[in-house]
Amino acid sequence: MSEAPVPGGPLLRMESVRKSFGDSVVLRDVDLEVAPHTVTTLIGASGSGKSTLLRCANLLEEVDDGAIWLDGEEITDPRTDQDAVRRRIGVVFQAYNLFPHMTVLENITLAPRRVHGAGRAEAEAHARELLERLGLGAKADEYPDRLSGGQQQRAAIVRALAVRPRLLLLDEITAALDPELVGEVLDVVRDVKADGMTMVLATHEMGFAREVSDQVCFLEDGVILERGTPEQVFGDPRQERTRRFLGRIVEAGRL
């Protein structure tokens, strides 16, 4: 198992990753490389394997075959400390998953203090800095039920950032939001990208994917059928199935 980062190499690398649930094959020999300080966006219909790919990257799902590397370390090696790996990865899901009995500040400082060993003063100072920068400074002492859906999702992103992750995974983070709240959450992702965070995100927001991505991957039936720059994938897709998928998106007015 390689422990040292590979100079100039990808921050995240997947090689021939396969994952099945029973008789259903969800990921089929997936290869993926994510360079540091870039945004890779996964697009495709529901059920194409996007969420499972993200869950495998965070070791929330065990791969059946293949290997995954983070910073040059093979994290799918059986000897890997999975909890240590997860401490280097931030994850935000569709559901906000904020603890309702804790204030926003308490939610955000829980992992830095309990998992990463930060002191209360250090954790709270960093949390307040992030909240202020991402437009939630006035909500630090509120409870989640006093926040809008968009504010709760922004708080969930702050919570993921508070552990200073090497990699941030975002799984359809606007799917549960009313349309008028989507923009404020996407603005936060733009700010995080500007800070140089490495991200892999799954989204149905095609216009946003075209704007924010460095690499776009189109998945169908657990296979990455096409990958490239946003200009290439959205402007001149090579695969017929990619063209059909994007055609349906255009007809629905989402691109």
Automatic annotation (TrEMBL):
MF terms in GO: ABC-type amino acid transporter activity; ATP binding; ATP hydrolysis activity
Keyword Cell membrane in record: yes
CDD domains xrefs: ABC_HisP_GlnQ
Keyword Transport: yes
Pfam families: ABC_tran
Major localisation: membrane
GO cellular component: plasma membrane
Transmembrane parts of this sequence: none
UniProt feature coiled coil, ranges: none
Domain ABC transporter residues, every copy: 12-246
InterPro entries: AAA+_ATPase (IPR003593), ABC_ATPase_HisP-typ (IPR030679), ABC_transporter-like_ATP-bd (IPR003439), ABC_transporter-like_CS (IPR017871), MetN_ABC_transporter-like (IPR050086), P-loop_NTPase (IPR027417)
Membrane topology: Peripheral membrane protein
Entry keywords, A to Z: Amino-acid transport, ATP-binding, Cell membrane, Membrane, Nucleotide-binding, Transport
Family annotation (SMART domains): AAA
Subcellular location: Cell membrane
PANTHER family cross-referenced by the UniProt entry: AMINO ACID IMPORT ATP-BINDING PROTEIN, GLUTAMATE_ASPARTATE IMPORT ATP-BINDING PROTEIN GLTL
Family: Belongs to the ABC transporter superfamily.
Protein name: Amino acid ABC transporter ATP-binding protein
